[in-house]
Amino acid sequence: MTSKEHSGGGSQLEELNGFTNPGLVEHVPRLSDGDPKADRVAERQVAAWFIASMIGTIWFIVSYFLFVPGESMSSIRLHNTSVGLGAALAMFSLGAGAVLWAKNLMSDHEGIDERHDISGSEEDQAVALEILHQAKEESGIARRPLLRNTLIAALAIAPLPAVLVFRDLGPLPGDMMFHTLWDKGVRLIRDPGGIPSADSERPIKAEDVTIGSAYHVLPSGIGADDGPDRPINEKAKAAVLLMRINPNELKEDPARKDWSHDGIVAYSKICTHVGCPVALYEHQTHHLLCPCHQSTFDVTEHCKVIFGPAKRPLPQLPITVDSEGYLVAQSDFAEPVGPTFWEINHP
Ligand code: FES
């Protein structure tokens, strides 16, 4: 045994550091230490927490399949809230049960570990074994089958939510990221925030876009047809950042020379790393920054990556102006938007 029960005082510390070591407080027996009835109650309380953890895990699984998220925001909220509550109950109850077990039922005698050399000698191994045996005795795991079994059951099913969450990583999106709501002649409107509606549409005139400005942009008509029922991922995929810089500063590829209009350029807002919204524009350096992992894109060079983990430029939306001077798309994006690892068929 390498630890001994504290008997007060800490003369060694006192000598070394020149201050009085108050020592450990005197041990006060708990109710469950001397009263078998209280001990039994405490045991049941702990078991109840472990059972609550199992209920939380089962709740998570049932909610996952019961509240399948649809295209509407409310169904997604219901799904997320319910599985979140289930996971929270499972994890909190597991922790609460473990803490109560340690506080009320395991040995609470404070001890001082004597320092000793760490070695792998047989003697030390025997000591370690002895400590393990003592821990087994003091935790009561051998003589409290109710606690042991409920803990094992709770731990056994606790990882199941993770399995379901990993399941959500698939299936692969196929060619879904190759197509967005942008099309030839679709006007660029300012992102109204929240759920767009026909009334909130504000088309952008090229003459209103000043040098140095940046707009969060969506395609016209995004809220007109089916409003909140339009798939949310369609709105997210179509998000665009519009900026105007001095045309002389643009280093445009000749093949894409007509994709911009008098220094006005439009790029997908979805980071090509793992899909965060790129939202920070430094108008002096013409850099776009992704707040998630700091990928940085150079707007003057077709948003090529100049820093960070993203592996390809932000896709450019070809734009022009219509007969009334409003900015419109020439077509959809020429390449898939979103994270690079989704582009299974991308050349
Ligand atoms: S998601 Fe943009 S840098 Fe990671």
Topology readout:
Elements: E1 3-5, H1 11-17, H2 31-34, H3 36-66, H4 73-104, E2 111-113, H5 122-139, H6 145-157, H7 160-167, E3 188-190, E4 214-219, H8 232-238, E5 240-244, E6 264-268, E7 280-282, E8 287-289, E9 296-298, E10 304-307, E11 319-321, E12 327-329
FE2/S2 (inorganic) cluster binds next to loops.
Description:
With about 350 residues, this protein is α+β, with helices and mostly antiparallel strands. The protein has two domains: about 5-165, no CATH class; about 175-340, Rieske [2Fe-2S] iron-sulphur domain (Rieske Iron-sulfur Protein, 3-layer Sandwich). The protein is built from eight helices and twelve strands. Strand 11 and strand 12 form a beta hairpin. Helix 3 (about 35-65) runs antiparallel to helix 4 (about 75-105) and helix 3 packs parallel to helix 6. It starts with a strand and ends in an 18-residue tail after the last strand. Residues about 1-10 have low confidence and may be disordered. Bound molecules: FE2/S2 (inorganic) cluster.
